[in-house]
Write a structure and sequence with these properties.
- This protein has two domains: about 20-345, Orthogonal Bundle (ABC transporter involved in vitamin B12 uptake, BtuC), CATH 1.10.3470; about 380-465 and about 475-710, TolB, C-terminal domain (Neuraminidase), CATH 2.120.10.
- It contains 20 helices and 26 strands.
């Protein structure tokens, strides 16, 4: 048995199973498949076709990529918005003709010809955009019709002007440099221009508001509309962008080859659609990137040139690309459908945990945790008027504050707490709360970060991110589940992020992993910066600044322990375990009037879950094969409140054994002789009279002094 436990301990400590789930959850994982295909293709062509990648060939490929890459980007932008543009080949042909006509026949300056060419592409794209965006016509049918119309226009123009274009050789150094010039005779200018456009497009799509709106419209037009996004305008501009980029590519093509014909751009829609889907852009919209367009373009470009060198041309080439497109669509559809299922099977990654034997809680056990019914007959505040008061706090006027699952902070007016109002609306579920020196109510808001509410009820953000962990695969800089907080004498806000892998709806799943996904974070008022001070904690929860003002107590819920962290003084940076074996799962911690500390136990340990923590294989199979509603979770239906001192001794325990008024307790706050109780799944606040407690003691006064209200 010892050897088995030792193996499990080191196997799950040394082999990070969670890495696979974190990789699959990344947005860039969609790039892995096209990147792998591109790598295999490059290696295969390098060995099978000698000279395929010599300097001259690479230069030519670069020029071709500039043209194909821009048209693929055009198709990608339209697809991101939930549409498709089958007319890109015909727009390409029109723009190619316009560029050649301007330079060869009208003898315009190449830069002026570029403006005219782009205007032609914008006009074609705007026509598609108006029909699809504003008249709500179907993208597939509309662009199929405009494909035919634009192609007919090109054919008529060629009959009239093709001879004039082909019989003139413009004497323009700039035109020649655009077509064949290269920086240091190595890197084609057209490639540099295309690369610049691709970088700018990446920034706009992934980092700026127009790109976010584009993704939202492609993901769900109805939801985007309800969020206030101008859907019609966004769709319109996707087709304008498509026409512009296609025209730019056609201008480069015209400068490079200086010829036009009936075959120009024919079948291009098939090629760029293949490239976009091969790169990983979704046909359903809302998922794609510039990087995907680049990968897809490179694959198609190299493959088409390889087919030529292998002697495969004409209809065989079209057949091959058609089959590739069919396979890409099948893979894309299957991957989109099953990615979530795969992720669900591998994301939850348990590790080995062995807790000490739980201390007894039986009434006749003599244990300091012995059960009783002290909380059975507590007074009830706000019954049925609030939902989910995870934490409670009182100001110096006796007003009681709590959060609700609807995103509100509710204020019950003292001293009887029968009348209440919505003090502020945060937009997320307010959890831990504390008053700062200026009278602002600071709160952790699930999924949003740390926010403060001034005495007038105005809400503002304190912080919603911290520094990213160097060893983390996922970007853990954003705060996922800020839980509880307290404020140091100098204004530093220390708060816990219970888990960075799950949210408020799925937080119990974190116990299945018990991996140390949480952290203690500090916000510094002088610089406004936020830094993680204690990483890799097992669901850190309650935080309370000790009376010395140099340390804090924090709870690790799944580790069933309380620790002390010194952030100032001679022990600064040191962590000591204060209570290492609680009979339940600790939650919030707050000060008591007698110089000790109150601790909420949100639920009690049981032998089944304690044993399961030693069996990560069992928990892994459970997460893969059993519906989540039937998983083995800790008991959070029965809890209690205990009092401890700075030596870690348990001084008192308060239970509602029958679960009549408080089936679970996540927080408690002492004020003027009473203990106020909150619970994240409760619809009420409890009020318990503490025998022998100081009737004048106020918790907020121990932080900022008895005249705190006067100084505000």
């Amino acid at each position: 048995m010892f050897r088995t436990d030792l193996y499990r301990k080191w196997r799950y400590r040394l082999i990070p199973d969670h890495v696979l789930g974190e990789i699959l959850s990344k947005r860039w994982i969609d790039n892995a498949i096209p990147f792998s295909v591109l790598t295999v293709l490059v290696v295969s062509l390098y060995f099978s076709l000698p000279g395929f990648f010599d300097a001259y060939a690479v230069g030519e490929y670069s020029r071709q990529f500039a043209e194909l890459g821009l048209v693929t980007l055009a198709m990608t932008i339209v697809m991101l918005g939930g549409g498709i543009d089958l007319s890109v080949g015909s727009i390409f042909a029109i723009a190619n003709f316009v560029a050649l006509y301007c330079v060869h026949v009208l003898s315009l300056d190449p830069l002026l010809a570029l403006v005219v060419t782009l205007a032609a592409g914008i006009g074609c794209g705007a026509l598609n955009g108006v029909l699809i965006g504003y008249f709500k016509m179907r993208a597939f049918l509309t662009t199929l019709v405009t494909l035919i119309i634009f192609r007919a226009v090109v054919d008529m123009l060629l009959l009239r002007y093709s001879l004039e274009i082909s019989s003139v050789f413009p004497d323009s150094e700039l035109w020649a440099q655009i077509g064949d010039g290269a920086l240091f005779d190595t890197v084609p200018y057209t490639f540099l221009i295309a690369a610049t456009i691709l970088v700018v497009a990446h920034i706009v799509i992934s980092r700026m508001r127009p790109g976010w709106h584009l993704m939202a419209v492609g993901g769900s037009r109805r939801s985007a509309y309800n969020a206030g996004i101008k859907v019609r305008r966004t769709v319109f501009f996707t087709y304008v962008a498509s026409g512009t980029l296609t025209a730019m590519a056609a201008y480069m093509y015209a400068a490079r080859l200086a010829s036009t014909g009936a075959e120009t751009g024919k079948g291009m829609e098939l090629v760029v659609l293949t490239a976009a889907i091969l790169g990983g852009t979704s046909l359903g919209g809302g998922r794609g990137s510039v990087a995907k367009a680049v990968f897809g373009s490179l694959i198609v470009l190299l493959l088409s040139n390889a087919l030529v060198q292998f002697g495969i041309q004409g209809g065989a080439t079209a057949l091959i690309f058609g089959l590739i497109l069919l396979a890409s669509v099948i893979i894309e559809v299957r991957w989109s459908k099953n990615r979530g299922k795969i992720l669900n099977k591998v994301y939850v990654s348990p590790t080995y945990v062995r807790l000490p034997d739980s201390p007894p809680t039986e009434a006749d056990s003599g244990s300091p945790y012995a059960v009783n019914d002290k909380l059975r007959r507590v007074d009830v505040i706000g019954l049925g008027q609030i939902e989910g008061p995870e934490d409670v706090i009182l100001d110096s006027d006796g007003n009681l504050y709590c959060g609700t699952r609807h995103g509100d902070i509710v204020r019950f007016f003292g001293p009887d707490h029968t009348r209440h109002e919505i003090f502020a609306h945060t937009g997320g579920h307010p959890l831990g709360m504390a008053f700062d020196r200026d009278g602002n109510l600071v709160s952790c808001v699930s999924g949003m970060g740390v926010y403060k509410v001034d005495p007038a009820g105005n809400v503002s953000k304190v912080t919603d991110q911290t520094n990213r962990s160097w060893t983390s695969i996922i970007d853990d800089s954003r705060l996922s589940l800020a839980d509880d907080l307290d404020i140091a004498p100098d204004g530093r806000i220390f708060f816990s992020e219970a888990t960075k892998r799950f949210d408020l709806e799925t937080w119990p799943v974190d116990v299945i992993e018990s991996r140390g996904n949480g952290r203690i974070v500090c916000w510094y008022p002088d610089s406004g910066k936020t830094r993680t001070v204690l990483p890799s904690l097992r669901f850190p929860n309650g935080i309370c600044i000790a009376l010395d003002g140099q340390s804090l107590f924090f709870a690790e819920t799944w580790a069933c322990r309380i620790s002390r962290y010194w952030f100032d003084g001679p022990k600064a940076g040191k962590v000591e375990i204060l209570i290492d074996n609680l009979p339940g799962y600790p939650d919030n911690i707050n000060r008591a009037s007698d110089g000790n500390y109150w601790l909420a136990l949100v639920g009690m340990r049981g032998p089944a879950i304690d044993l399961a923590l030693q069996m990560p294989d069992f928990r892994k199979r459970m997460s893969q094969r059993v519906a989540s509603s039937n998983w083995l979770f800790p008991n959070i239906n029965t809890g209690c409140v205990v009092k401890f001192n700075e030596q870690g001794e348990i001084l008192d325990a308060l239970w509602d054994l029958g679960g009549v008024n408080h089936p679970m307790v996540t927080s408690m706050r002492e004020h003027q002789g009473y203990l106020y109780l909150g619970g994240i799944y409760n619809n009420r606040i409890g009020k318990y009279k503490i025998p022998g407690a100081d009737p004048d003691w106020q918790g907020v006064a121990t932080y900022w002094g008895p005249d705190w209200r006067a100084k505000k």
